[in-house]
Structure formats: C-alpha cells, structure tokens
Amino acid sequence: MNIRKILDTVRKPFAKGEKFEKYAPAVNAFDTFLFVPNHTTKHGAHIRDAVDLKRTMITVIIALLPALLYGIYNTGFQYYSQLGSAFTTLDAVIHGSAKIVPMIAVSYIVGLAIEFAFAIFRGHEVNEGYLVTGLLIPMIMPIDIPLWMVGLSVAFAVLIGKEAFGGTGMNILNPALTARAFAFFAYPTYMSGNKVWVSEASNVDGVSGETILGMLASGESTIPYDVSQMFYGAIPGSIAETSTLMVLIGAFILIFTGVGSWRIMLGSILGAALTGLLFNLWGANELMNFSWFNHLIVGGFAFGVVFMATDPVSAAQTTKGKWIYGILVGLFCILIRVFNPAYPEGVMLAILLMNVFAPTIDHYVIESNITKRLNRKLKSNLNVA
Amino acid sequence: MSKNKVLLTDPLDDNNPITVQVLGICSALAITVQLKAAIVMSLSVIAVMAASNVIISILRDLIPNRIRIIVQLVVVASMVVLVDQVLRAYAYDVSKELSIFIGLIITNCIVMGRLEAFALGNGVWRSFLDGVGNAFGYAWILILVAFFRELLGSGKLLGIQAIPDFIYEMGYVDNGLMLLSPMALITVGLIIWVQRSRNRKLIEQG
Description:
The complex is a heterodimer.
Chain A: H1 3-11, H2 24-34, H3 53-83, H4 89-122, H5 130-139, H6 147-162, H7 175-186, H8 188-191, H9 212-217, H10 227-232, H11 244-257, H12 262-282, H13 286-289, H14 292-297, H15 301-308, H16 319-339, H17 347-384
Chain B: H1 2-9, H2 25-30, H3 35-59, H4 68-90, H5 92-103, H6 109-117, H7 124-154, E1 156-157, E2 160-161, H8 165-169, H9 181-198
Antiparallel strand pairs in B: 1-2
Helix pairs in contact in B: 1-7, 3-4, 3-5, 3-7, 4-5, 4-6, 6-7, 7-9
C-alpha cells in the first residue's frame, strides 16, 4: 500500500479545473496532515525550516498527552473513591475514557465542521489551529458537562472567537478559553459549585466533590488533601488540569522543542508567586492564607499558564512583552482568586484579560525600543559633532 | 417620489443607524433582554423621532444657529416627557419596567443626529419620513436582538414560554450569557456580519 498513491487518486477530482475544485481545501487538509506540503515560498526573504504550523500543533498535542491520560485516570479515580468502592486502575481508566472520549469527539466534529465549512466558503486552506483547540476544550471542562454544551461552546469559540476575526492567527482571544468562558457564563450551574467536578456526583448523596479553591472560597480552612496530592493531581477539578506533574512534563516538551515560550511560563510563575507571597503576609481570608506555593499547584494555574497563556497567536510577541504579559497573567490570576469568591479559579479570566492587552504591551515595548535607539543615534551624532 | 421613498428604506438596511452608523448602541444593549420592553422602546423612539423631526423642520428657519443644539434638546425632551406620560397613563407596568430608559431617549445619538443632519435642512414631509425611517431602522434591530435574547436567554417570548417542556426534559438549559449585556453586543455584531456578507457595498475599501 502506498499512501501517497491513494491520496493522489482521491485528490484527482478536486484538482484545479475539475469538478469538485471548490471542496479542495477539505482533502488538502488531510493530505498535508499526512505529508509535508511540497509547495515552497517563491518571493521575498523567508526562513528555511522543517517546522510548519502542523508540526508545531502536533508537538503541542504530544505535550498535552500526559495531562490528558492522567485526567482520564483521575476521572475514574475520583468517581470510584467517592463511591467508596474497590477498583483497579483499569476500571478507572475505562470509566474515564467512557466519559472523556465522547467529549473530545464532539469537540473535534463540531469544530472541524465549522473550520472546513469556512475554508470551502472563503476559498482558503483549512488551518490546523483547531487540532490543539479541539483537544484543549474538553480538557478544561468539568467532567459532567452535557455534550451539547461542549458542542455549543466549541461553535461559539470557533465562530465568534476565531472566524469573526478572520480565522486562525487573527484571533484576539485564546479560542479554548473563549469556549470555557462561554460555558462558564452561559451555564454557571454546570461549570462551578461542588457537584460538577466528580463524574455523576449529582446522583450520589454525601459526595464532597468541591475543588480546593472552591472550598477556600466558601471559607473552609481545612483542606482534606496534602501537598503531594495537589502536585500529583489526585484531586477534583476540570478534567486534565489537576496534575501539576503531568503539566510540567508537557511544559518541558514545549520548552525543549521551542514551541512554547519559557519566558511567559516563568513570568507567570514569578507573578503568581510574588502576589501569593504578598497576600500570605496580609492574610485577611482563607485564600490569602493559602500558601503561595500551593496556589501554583492547585486549580488550572499550571495548565493554563503552560498551554494557554503561551498560545503564540494571542500572547505578546516581543521578548520584553512576554515577560510583562506573563507576570501580569500570574498577578491577575491570584488577584481574581483572592478577591472574587464568585470566581474561585482566576486563571481563565486572567489569561483572557491579558490576551486583550497583549497587543498594547507589544506596542509600547516596540515604541520604547524605537525611542531608545533614536536617542542613541542622536547622542552618537552629538559626540561626532 | 422615489427620492422620498429612499428616506424611508435607506435606514432599514444600507444606512441603518445601529448596524451601519453604530449609533444608539447603549439602549440596544440595555433593554433587549425582553421582547416586550424592546417593542415599547421602539414605539417610543418612533414617536419621539417623528415628532421632533417635524417640529425642528418647521422651526428650522427661526432657530438661531448658535443655540440650535439647545433648542433641539428642549424639543426632544418635551417629546420624551410626553411619551413618558402617555406610557404611564396607558401602560403603567411597562413604563415602570422601562423607567429610566424612556427618559434616556433624549441622549439617544440617533435622535439628535437626525435633527442635526437632516431636519435642520429639509422640508417637513421629508423630515417626517426621515425620522420614521431611521426610527424603524433602529426598531427592527432592537426587536430582532430582543427576540433572540429572550428566546435563548429565558426560553420565553413576550413573557410566554416559547420553548416547549419536552425540550427542557431532554436536557436543554437556558443560556444565562444571553441575559448579560455582552451577548447583546455579540448579537448586534452577528447581525452586522450577516448584513455585510449579503450587502457587499457596505464593506469599506481597505
């Protein structure tokens, strides 16, 4: 079997001047998914590199896998341990898969359908940005969210968050977080509270399925989890964000391959740690008393910072801008957590807020650079004179 | 005759005050949660715009140029008070619901904009048509937005349940975001998107 030959036969009726030319983007998308595209840039200066958007996106997918696999296990683990029944790892994985695989399928089907429709309608190639978004969206949802809500959030994120601005690469906000924010404000009872984080918790009485941040926000001071549980992720939360360890593995893959910006990640951690430390000194409520280190490993902070704040489209682009952007994401995340009990998890809103400000940050970084260099030029001219 | 007809039809699409000129957005966001409020608001704006356009057009040669804005304001304010009194007399509940927003018609940019841009320089009949046309252009967008927001946000239309029970039993839930103002902005944005893709001449040449 030669995949190249099969693809060529399939593509034939879609070629230029043939019957289905209009639908070419749909097949081309599968073609470039399997093979490196063979067209090259013909004009102007360009960088020669083996990496293209598709390889970049697939690297992110690989980096997401540890968190996803742990999320699948943790879903089953939370379910069985809350029920108090005996179970094996396999049981947990089966339960988790049965819940999560349909969500991923819905996310990809809805999102790709819209992407393909727009590609054909607008006559451009299908952009691969959705490969990552489509996996991220189910990973940051609560486990019990109905599938149609996932589909609707995906549709909103792709249509309003992305296509309305001109498609992949033009979006102001991170599409995955746009989907989550939509679901969060549209269906608050399905997105927060103490019933949504453990699968089927609403059917079982006496389940303590509240997230750690949720408990703190409602004023409880004793947390039934220790630091190692928070770090490894055996706690309730959105599907794949609970394990800081798995997120760190993903972060190393992103940094090692150069796909994710370490400046943004480090900046956010610094910002959050410093803000957390300051609040520790203040200590006016439970969330302020919560140690700054624990702030970094609970909730979606680690996941959001590694996989969503670093989104190359919506983040700041300049080197200095990335530091500022990252630090502010960390700062706002802790601020929102501490000051607004209605939003115990602040990282989603912090990143969306900074997405909006990223172009402004870049603008001022570039402007200050221009002024600096102009001044240097003026000074050296004066010296010569 | 056809020139007069354009005054009525142009603001409905090609020169819509909300979707093309992006005026009067504030009230489009504030009172489109319920269809009923939007309809009453639309009727009030139609009445105010028609009447004040006519009055300013009659007075247009008497108004000293320097104080024209104040005169316009006085006329619009009187019309708004009149509408408010009528609503209180005949539709007290709705008037209580809309309370401050009827008063705020004075600040609606469309009203002053049409007085300034049209009624000051045109005859009475043409000014009347222009006022009614622009008010209808405002009204149909307002009612369309309110239709979607009430239907999707609370499952009702004009306060009557519009989404049948069996759909709720299948697991459907009302969309809380629709009740918040950002969604009004997004709905208006979607209308603009649809309008521009149908009406290519609205797209600015870059």
